[in-house]
Write a structure and sequence with these properties.
The protein has a five-stranded parallel β-sheet, sandwiched between helices. The protein is α/β, with parallel strands linked by helices. The chain folds into two domains: 45 residues; 195 residues, Rossmann fold. 50% of the residues lie in helices and 11% in strands.
Length: 251
Amino acid sequence: MKILVIKILLGLAVLSCLVSAQSPHDCASVTAALEQRLEAQRRLLADWAGLIRYGSENTELPAPKPGADRVVFLGDEVTENWGRGGAQFFPGKPYLNRGISGQTTPQMLVRFRQDVIALKPKVVVIQAGMNDIASLTGPITQGMFAENVMSIVELARANDIRVVLASLTPICDCYTKQSTLRPQGKIIGMNGWLRDYAAKSGSVYLNYYSAMAEGRNLKKELTGDGLLPNDAGYAVMAPLAEAAIAQALSK
């Protein structure tokens, strides 16, 4: 039913753009947001938590080599897209990408055992929250987000996995209107909670936000759409992630 409603809204949005005086910029933003929600709903019906996405890879993955510092990156599209362009995903390092586009923290919590614990990493880098703000899988308050993150961290610690909590990355309206779904004030609020909880829980806080923001906005040269990092953006993120992982391993 929800997919049908989104399809109707998508059709109405396109029709409205054709007959109204809306700018192409605003029309593209509305259409892209509805298409993103439609795709998220399709995935939810097929495999809500995304357990199929990495199931085969996980099964075929050998145990870590003695002395290897295996790291799992758990996240959404910011994580999944890392390595798909010119910016490679930590070549030569025993790091595993377990990002799934469009995911929220309750989905990551469900797949944490399969996609993280079972792989026996020394460190997990958790990057989440952007889609919680956008309510891609239903309304999620900051309190619900916090509870999900705390549960994930507690699961990691119970299995002797060190935790790196990454900030949400900034966004900008420099290409399309990104702040409608993801208000910048909410991003800042979630990052403040993540920073404080990292200190409280003995985790490492990985501050992508400060390095990538100019004021409240994602620097235009670090993105191609105002939401996701481009190769230059990932080039900024990589050494920060490496430093946070090294700090976690030293604990």
